What we know:
Blueprint: H1 16-26, E1 33-35, E2 40-42
Antiparallel strand pairs: 1-2
Amino acid sequence: MKVQSLGHVVLKVGNRARSKTFYNEILGLPIVARLDKYQMTYF
């Protein structure tokens, strides 16, 4: 199966700081929004 595009993906993680490091600093995805009330970060 060949992926043509990727839309909305939700990942529940145990450590938001480590996830931020991985997705933002290692993969290079920019943080576009953050909702601390719900402990959510959008890349």
